[in-house]
Amino acid sequence: MVLKNSFNHLNEFFFYIYNYIRKIYLKSSFYNKKISKIEKKEIEYKPSLSLLACLIKYEKKRNNIEDFYVSSIWENKKIKESDYKKLHNFFWLFTLDLKSSKKITQSIILNWIEANQKYNSKNWEIDILSKRIISWISNSRLSYDGSEESYKLKFNTNIKKQINHLINEINRSSLINNKMIGCAAIVLTGLSYKDEKYLNYGLNLLKKIINISFDSHGFPKSRNQRQLIFYLKYFILIREWLKESQNEVPDYLNEIILYLGQNYNLIWQSINQNLLFNGNHLNENYSFDKYLKFHNYKFKNENNECGGYVILKNKNLVLSVDLGSSPEKKFSNDYQSGALSFEIFYKDCKLITNCGYFQNYKHQLNSISKSSATHSTLILDSSSSCKFKRDIDGILKVNKELKVFKKPIIKEKNYWCIEGSHEGYLKQFGIIHERKIEYLIDKDKLLGTDKLLKRKKLKSTNFEIRFHFEPGVKITKTQDKKFILIELKNSGWKFLCNGYTIEVETGLYFGKKNSFVENQNIFISGITQNNDQEINWELSKI
After folding, report:
1. Gap between the Cα atoms of 184 and 155, Å rounded
2. What is the pLDDT of residues 209-236, one digit of tens each?
3. CB 164 within 8 A of CB 133
4. Do 12 and 67 lie in a common domain?
5. 422 C-beta neighbours (distance < 10 Å), count
6. Does 98 map to a domain?
7. Which residues of 303-322 are buried (b: 16+ CB within 10 A; e: fewer)?
8. Phi, psi angle pair for 345, to nearest 5°
9. Which domain holds residue 414?
10. pLDDT tens digit string along 153-172?
């Protein structure tokens, strides 16, 4: 153990020295000269602003550039990190009225260029730099057209300098989302300047991202539904750029868009609801649906499964269960320990939910939202079914992969059945968790069976089975304490579990990005035995 700790400290020391030297190099005149070697080409392809509508929400009322404090826009030293990123990625250009003064807009860009002739660790970060390039080029009618030749030269030179830096650095990033945004920026630069070097590099990187990041059915290996939508938006955007600039669309791009689109249809379009599994939070996807329709993207999916999620639905009820194994460590940034957890919607109202995800890696609520306790599943001794460990960047990643095993799904006219099990508690507690959820459609009744299968003789421990509810759902315990009544906006439900203690508790709900409110949950509690146990619960419409 001492030797292992010493080795880790030595690694951290060398990593620190390497990064220190590297920062000096990036800020050097030598490196600046290296990335300044460019071909003197001007913008030829100017993408339609409407294509960015998949990423940007355009307001009907557009701002005038004179509304900004032009003279002091770069001088605010006390600006918040989030606002700093928004300022330096220039996505605010999309909010401007095109009739605003080009000269003022261009003077702001020129001021930025002159202040950033060399690498700046803060505003040359991959995501900020990439969005800035996309914004400058996409808004070329404002940022470029009608300018003097001296300005155009500085503009074009700076863009290519940033892209050269991006190409040098992009493979170092461990954040796949940043790689995707960077890839889009490189492809757009190649298209706009008709530069085959940039275009080929961007398309090859795109192919690499596709080959590495998706399973055989086109679902992100992270199992993050939010990331699926993120990829779909950027892949479609790149495809539309290629089409509009009259370049050939690679087959691999068409194929991955088809796969992603089919998965998107199942997890969103077929139910129009947010499923709070593995990094997802509440999103409004209707504007993206309109974008897809406008550009003639139509997706269908007749399956009940994708990405390890089972989704069964009829005109009244949606039942979704997480039956997927954990992702590999490198794809597990946003994975949550919710194996065999489930969510239920009844006529557009959520009956059972998970608690959502607190995305800020630096906040302690991130680790809480990753725990099994914030999911509608079984917990042993307040432990999670999947174990996490912080990496060098402080991100909680899967320490040991969790395997989930599922049985064939039954979906008949009046009967559904979903079954699965996992070994997440086997090593520590000697127990396999097996879950079966049945839906008796003609009775509007859900029957649940959670089994604790003893495989090793270890000491007894406490267990809980939690069922979480959205904020505002009214929960009442009956006077005889045999039932719990659940009141939704459109229906009432009864919950019972014979033979075990049922309690109601207040918890935390992270449905909205990086925020929390109180919610309530029902939990069944007990103690594990030396033999197999079966806990039966029932949820029926009143």
Report:
1. 19
2. 999 999 999 999 999 999 999 999 999 9
3. no
4. no
5. 25
6. yes
7. ebbbbbbbbbbeeebbbbbb
8. -115, 140
9. 305-541
10. 999 999 999 999 999 999 88
